[in-house]
Amino acid sequence: MKNNISPQDYWESRFKDIDPETYDFSESKPAATLAHFCDKYLKEGDTVLDVACGGGRNAHYLAQRGYTVYGIDFAKSAIEFCKKRFVRFNLSGTFKQGTMDNLAFPNDFFAGVMCMAAIDHVTTDCARRVLGEIRRVLVPGKAILLTFDHPKQDEDIIHLAEVLVDGTFKYIHGEYVGMLFRRYTDEEIELLIGKQNIISFDHTEEGARVIICK
Ligand SMILES: C[S@@+](CC[C@H](N)C(=O)[O-])C[C@H]1O[C@@H](n2cnc3c(N)ncnc32)[C@H](O)[C@@H]1O
């Protein structure tokens, strides 16, 4: 059993062997919901933050649309990949290594914040802090885009993971060892965000949840 691998170790390993010079970028499309969010909630040139940006598929799209893009992720390998990716495509953006529940940005700095397929990869306590931090760095009244994966994305999860006290799974077997995954129900997501803060709550065909909120 390899359960001493931390979530950060897991994510570092996901990005460490990929090279923007040889990477197949056709595999790296932005999240389908991002265009709608930009059209409806952002204006030209806005400053935006991609929280837990991973390999930068969403940051890439945002930069191509002309926004002033910042990205943070705790995996150094992901941040390095994003920086090289932006150089390769001649895009402008700022990437910082950091944890998403302690954002190293001033208050009221961003006109839009997105956190895609990531807030369900931390514990619920951490997710609450992430939302607090996103709200702190967001200009009051502006919108947040969040996605949560399908709650039953991995039917066999119980055989592969241990369950932490708050119900978050931590993988201890298989290819995701170290990764955290909290399978929220729709009701739990509403509780986490606060129903009164939710502008829209949609389900993709694959069953992921797409939330625009304050
Ligand atoms: C499934 S990937 C999603 C990446 C990107 N948002 C996307 O949509 O392609 C989850 C990302 O969350 C990052 N992550 C997980 N926990 C984190 C934390 N506590 N602080 C910062 N980043 C974190 C991982 O390093 C990884 O890049």
Automatic annotation (TrEMBL):
It comes from the Bacteria. InterPro entries: Methyltransf_25, SAM-dependent_MTases_sf. Residues 48-141 form the Methyltransferase domain. Gene3D superfamilies: Vaccinia Virus protein VP39. SUPFAM superfamilies: S-adenosyl-L-methionine-dependent methyltransferases. Transmembrane segments: none annotated. PANTHER family: METHYLTRANSFERASE. This is Methyltransferase domain-containing protein. It comes from candidate division TA06 bacterium DG_78.
